[in-house]
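The instructor's notes for this session suggest beginning with a concrete chain rather than abstract definitions. Hand out the sequence below and ask the class to guess, before any prediction is shown, which regions might be ordered.
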Amino acid sequence: MLDMIRLPTVVIDRKMQGMCRLPYPNHARGCPNFGLKVGCPPNVPLFPEVYDMTKPVYAIVNRFDFGAHVAKMRAAHPDWTDRQLTCCLYWQGTARKALKRAIADFERLFPDHTVDTCPEAKGVNVTATLQAVGINLEWPPQAVACQVALAGVLL
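After discussion, reveal the predicted structure:
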């Protein structure tokens, strides 16, 4: 399910950029792109330094049925571990494709807006921002995994 939501506020917290440094399996120092890839922290401006916060900002949210995906994988691979069943390699491509379609639809409706598919890199606390509009993200996802892009008018 896809949503396009006008946000009443965007919660900014520079600590969000540091999430990229958190360890995850096979990456003890966090994301290997940190400080190297264009668009990755720490050398990325904060969201309000790029977008005009006096203009409407929208969230484009893709809700992926993660629980159904895991159940399908468990049925197909009963000997797999939970880590294998939930591995992003098996579901993120499908979810990203749906998000890209939603972004294309949004851009047709709002050609003056620019979409950012990694708002956390610009210091946006996506969890708190979406809570303000009644969307509670699951961490880690169990039933629904949400992918979120934000869109606004560039300064």
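Then share the key points. The chain has a mean pLDDT of 94. The CA atoms of residues 21 and 32 lie 9 Å apart.
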